[in-house]
Automatic annotation (TrEMBL), chains A, B:
InterPro entries tied to this protein: PP2C, PPM-type-like_dom_sf, PPM-type_phosphatase-like_dom
Protein name listed in UniProt: Protein phosphatase 1M
Top-level taxon: Eukaryota
Gene3D superfamilies per the UniProt record, alphabetical: PPM-type phosphatase domain
Domain (PPM-type phosphatase) ranges: 26-379
PROSITE patterns in the cross-refs: PPM_2 (PS51746)
PANTHER family linked to this entry: PROTEIN PHOSPHATASE 1M, PROTEIN PHOSPHATASE 2C
Species whose genome carries this gene: Apodemus speciosus (Large Japanese field mouse)
Upper taxonomic lineage: Eukaryota, Metazoa, Chordata, Craniata, Vertebrata
């Protein structure tokens, strides 16, 4: 369920899902990249869901929704032989150049799932390159967050770059499957980049240091709370004139902005984005690499109503994990198990809950003016389908 | 208990402990830096323990043992007024420049303990600068790891830079109070530095990529397992000639070395250290900043025999956390509570256990040829002494 709210003319949220058909193929062969085509030489089947929350227009989110699965399939096909072995071989060909190669791989603790994680990391980066080229060629701009889930060989992989979120909701448990990447959560990484790699980049416009609020003339000469890139704690420093500049990261919580411009620190696109009225580029501070978590569904002692809820910040800004879990549990308890549409209905109900409707369950009725997208994934049916070959 | 083993002529392990007397003092005033002097204007008392494991000679470890507590005291004295408030004020003077300043501090979640964490982070950096200057002035070389614990206002702060370790041992619990910083645990940080900040630094001598083993001619053209700075997972790449260079991080576990030289990625000193027979400096890859963990002792429901064990890698290389906990519990059960020396005896026993003696309890009798240092800190007596003012 994806809705456009009042914030933008076009829906900046985009979603994609489908079957992933991963074929064993000779490396280097030209191949078409049709999505959801029947693959007679099909080798491994997975399922894919992804949400993209655009900013600066819907272009990047639309491109990502049309592209990321192809990048991922290509990356998985490049390593699929390694994924099928009990332990990935040192050489993809299986040829053993050195007799102790299996031992080296063993010592590094490399498992098949590490190849899927690597494929997701590389697919996000490849997709970011594609978006950069496509936007430039078509004279469009914009960026988007990306949250992708892949069910493969009995495991659910969740890859996140941005501020969307996925959680597992069970009868007696809520488990986070992603964490958010914002200017606040990535403060040290961003301050370090400014300190070591791009000291000239801010062109004297910004201060790297974090203060509890933006400083002003009255603070000059006073000792105020601050922290720099090397600190997780706080200290005091005497305020100098350069500390009065605009902060690298400004604002709190949902209002926090990187260089006064962006609310997220990871995502795809934004190759052309500059700070308003300056020549300062945002891209060097943004990571297109996701953090990947792995849920071993086969080890989970699954119950019928175990679901994964994936949603953009439009949902999470107005509903907490606990509120969502309450809504999920009460909906699934009250809706018959034999209704094939109950999970889609649940997704709709969650979205409606952000619009001040159906707010009985939470009793709060907070309203989201941001676009909202929700996937509800029943794990039981995934596990039953298994990793078809 | 600190012993010199067979590895080096001089003991490269050094230890320091004592009372920390933190005086309220006007910022900017010249002050003497005597250690353990009587302070009539004493304001806040803490306790301090630290271990330093030197390499390339004992010089840096000796300097650190003589210096770090002074740096820490100075850093704490610079913020002590803020530490004594229920919430640190935006301005150290307590003056309120903006009426909503307390709210800004509240929103950032800044607590008194964040000032202690910041003081530890700054003290390590300051101490590193002092060591750099002192070693250069005296024509000496070397570096050391640093693990420091501070008991202050009912909390134990553990700051670690290197591969020493502190654990809490209770009757029914083992809790890690530090994690190790080695070329392996900090692989991505080091690869990123090479990729973005110092691409020229390795002067064509090293490859940034990680492979399960060093590659050789026979691997050329094959697709082998690898990962780069953006990956926590693995993928395959076709081996080119440049991949045959010496790896940035080489070897496994205890044998892992950064640039073929160092087994740790954080610590103090090493300002002059270069890769053998080259002009490549190690210092840009080393962090002097510790990771700080906080144990809220007042919230712990302390038992008499709860102890913190701090030790250099000489202990942990031959004894696991579980083995140390077993030794601690069986020793304390068998030794009378009224023996004032039993915790020192326990530290001695742990060290002896690394020398193939007293190995009955573990039944393994592995021998450490590295220097070994152990502090055993009974938490009960700390909490009883409290945070005297």
């Amino acid at each position: 369920m994806v809705i456009n709210a009042e914030k933008s003319e076009f829906n900046e949220d985009q979603a994609a899902c489908g079957k992933l058909c991963i074929r064993r193929c000779e490396f280097g062969i030209e191949e078409d990249q049709e999505w959801l085509t029947v693959c007679p030489e099909e080798f491994l089947t997975g399922h894919y869901w992804a949400l993209f929350d655009g900013h600066g227009g819907p272009a990047a989110a639309i491109l990502a929704a049309n592209t990321l699965h192809s990048c991922l399939r290509r990356q998985l096909e490049a390593v699929v032989e390694g994924m099928m072995a009990a332990q990935p071989p040192m050489h993809l060909s299986g040829r053993c150049v050195c007799s102790s190669d299996p031992q080296f791989v063993e010592e590094k603790g490399i498992r098949a799932e590490d190849l899927v994680i690597g494929a997701l990391e590389n697919a996000f980066q490849e997709c970011d390159d594609v978006i950069g080229r496509e936007l430039e060629a078509s004279g469009q701009v914009g960026g988007c967050t990306a949250l992708a889930a892949v069910f493969l060989q009995g495991k659910l992989y969740v890859a996140n770059a941005g501020d969307s979120r996925a959680i597992l909701v069970r009868r007696d448990e809520i488990r986070l499957l992603s964490s958010e990447f914002t200017p606040e959560t990535e403060r040290q990484r961003i301050q370090q980049l400014v300190a070591f790699t791009y000291p000239e980049l801010l062109a004297g416009e910004f201060t790297r240091l974090e203060f509890p609020r933006r400083l002003k003339g009255d603070d000059l000469g006073q000792k105020v709370l601050f922290r720099d890139h090397h600190m997780t704690g706080w200290s005091y420093k005497q305020v100098e004139k350069s500390d009065l500049k605009y902060p690298l990261i400004h604002g709190q919580g949902r209002q926090a902005r990187l260089l006064g411009t962006l609310a997220v620190s990871r995502g795809l696109g934004d190759h052309q984005l500059r700070v308003l009225d300056t020549n300062i580029q945002l891209k060097p501070f943004l990571l297109s690499i996701p953090q990947v978590t792995v849920l071993d569904v086969d080890q989970l002692a699954l119950q019928d109503d175990d679901v994964v809820v994936m949603a953009t910040d439009g949902l999470w800004d107005v509903l907490s994990n606990e509120q969502v879990a309450l809504l999920v549990r009460s909906f699934l308890t009250g809706n018959q198990e034999d209704d094939p549409h109950r999970f889609s209905e649940l997704a709709k109900m969650l979205v409606h809950n952000t619009q001040g409707k159906d707010s009985g369950a939470t009793g709060e009725g907070q309203v989201s003016y941001d676009d909202v997208s929700v996937f509800v994934i029943p794990l039981h049916s995934q596990a039953q389908e298994g990793s078809g070959h």
